[in-house]
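Why V-type proton ATPase subunit a? Reviewers of the renewal asked for a concrete example.
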Amino acid sequence: MWRSENMVLLEMTMQREAAHQTVERLGELGYVEFKDLSSHLNAFQRQFANEVKRCEELDRIIRYFDEQILKSEVTFASGDNFPGDDEETNEYGNILDSYEKDFSNFEKELRDLSGNLDQMIAEKNKAEEFSYVINLASQFFKGDEETYTDDSEAGMLSGSRSSSLGYMTGVIPREKIPSFLLLIYRSTRGNVVPRFAEIPTPLFDQKSGKMIEKNVFAVFFGASAAKEKVKRVCEALGASIHDFPEQDIAGTKRSVEQKIGELETTIESTKSRVTDLLSKISVNLPRWKERVHKEKAIFHTLNLFNYDIKGSVVSIGWCAEKNVENVKREMEEARLASNAQVPSICDIIQTNETPPTFFETNRFTEVFQNIINSYGIPDYKEVNPAVASTILFPFLFAVMFGDFGHGILLTLFSFAMVIFERKLKPVAESSELFSMVFAGRYILLLMGIFSIYTGFLYNDGLGLAVDIFKSGYQWNGHVGEKIADVTYPFGVDPAWFHTSNKLLYYNSLKMKMAVIFGVGHMSIGLFFALANMIHFGHFLDIFLEFIPELLILWSTFGYMCFLIIYKWCVNWFDPIYVGKFDPPQILPMMTDFFLSPWKMTQPPMFYSGGDVEAAKSAQAYAQIGLLLVAVICIPILLIPKPIVEYCKQKRKFKPRKAEDSQDSQVVHSDSGSEHHVAILEGTDGVEHSHHRDAQHEEMEPFSELFIKQLIHTIEYVLGTVSNTASYLRLWALSLAHAQLAEVFWQMTIGLALNMLEFSKVAEDAVVHSGVGLFFIFSIWFGMTIGVLLLMESLSAFLHTIRLTWVEFNNKFFKGTGSLFHPFSFATFGKAEE
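Here is what the prediction returned.
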């Protein structure tokens, strides 16, 4: 993973009969990224455009089968494949013909059965509704005066069927009754009398596929014009109209019930036939999907090739150098399997084109590579930032998330995902949110492990400190005294946890650590740039870029890091310092370093006895020298490189002028024939095109070269300051995380454990009973998981991405490469979905 794989451009020539088998075998391997040699043709003019359309039609039918199986809500058992053509022994044309025939027959039969079934269900629903109308609407015509609001209405309705009063009966969804009443009253100006009766059981609604509660209705009206208005309202609200029988109600009722029984029998029989057909289809559906997707991918790829009149096929594609022999072997096996007579040829061709970038990753390294690729694809053979990120990324996260308690929880969670990887994979595939977490299980594991380490380094766990080793301080009643010859062996002494100046101590410690980690992180990036310069043979860049950039960084902020470490290492209680001056402050010292390097307002950092002023003068001279080094490196970084680049271009383009003019004459005089030769000869045409493009590269003017270098110089010099300041987020987030953890503890469990200070009753209720303590623990645990483990970890993760992408990568990373996309059935299937 240090650098991308060696890539070669392959020219693959094969007989037309072997092309399909060759592409199929190479699709299984996923080794070759094919180039489009038919880019001058549109999608409809390509060689296998017809076959692609046939595959898309088969894909449409498969989706229809899927929909019907899902709609049937029946679980089908797997079984033997449907007797048909053996795909391994038949030609692709026969496979498509066989599939088209089988799929067409299945689709026609399924659509016929489904259409008949829908029609019979509709008739059955209509008959059931009519049956309820007969049973329930008859009460509206009995003239039962108790059911009406006034005598005139009762008298009018009692003789409605024998008088001139009109009526309309039917069934309406219960939820639409208020809208129905409102509309009919408004449209008829209140000249109607509606009546409703509830249907005791819900009825099946064919449009929604759900059981819906409905009511039988009857609307009585005096004018004939009202009938049409009521009818339009019924149609608008989805109410069905059923004419109430004028006579022989009992006979009509028996006839309807008989019809319902016959329809139920026929529906069950049709459903059984549909189920049998779908069962037969479902057994074969996975195999059909796989084969159709394969054929579609193969024909898409075959459309990228060149075909000549002699029956040979030429393709060109990128391949990793280590996989060339495997490609040759598969091509020969495909030729033998297809009974082609002409041997297939696979040659490596030379080109000036930049190869795509390919890193072979595994489950562990994939997530780190994806983080880098999200920012930019590494250039071909450029140092891959993902290598350093496997350690530096989780470490920088842990610096901000340093808490061994939270680190243990994060480690257990991610370790569980690693252990139960196979069981959780289906869950991740069905949940988009969990899939992102599951994909980062290995980086989460490292983040948790490093958080445990930095947590012990800070001696901070869940807002508490632990005294694992013997403390180097003891309390004398007023202040903590240092115990002679006792130093806490690892991490921060737990005695600091109970002091009033704890925050000041942690603030200073973490701020200085952030600066040291930042300068170290950026220095690693500069040395990665050096590795790139050596690999690509840009040796002048070592002297014109790397060394000036390194000196600018190290002579300023590298010097500050040296002061921090040196101050930590000095015993400022030594007699040679006591009484002469207090320990110097680094922040004012660095301010003087930039603003007035000749003036030392702070005591000397480097003092071993003697005259204090002489030590201050010596340090001032050293600081002036370091600042001069940084200032002198700026013009060295700015001026020489564009001059050198311009001179290189002049030497490169001068001898090509005559050759360029000859090439341009050839192109203008015979462009049509040249294009024809390129199509027939395949590789020769491509090689000639690459060579001609290389010759016709435009020479950049000196002004552009200088402006580019000026921008780079300004960005780097200003970035040295801003990027170093950006690493202070390591201090800020770490301090915030520790303070939040401490506050959550003190305001919940810590408060409960100290209830004795308030009252004995409160202590008994909260602590001794256990109920209150459990309740408070739940609050603390919920805040720990929700705020510290979820929100804070996400915040630290995003800040780590920022430090990796910007502060680290901009020291060496170009990120302008193109990702290697080999032809593979697995990736083609995902793209199609």
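Residues 82-90, 144-162, 664-695 have pLDDT under 50 and may be disordered. This is the kind of structural detail the renewal will allow us to pursue systematically.
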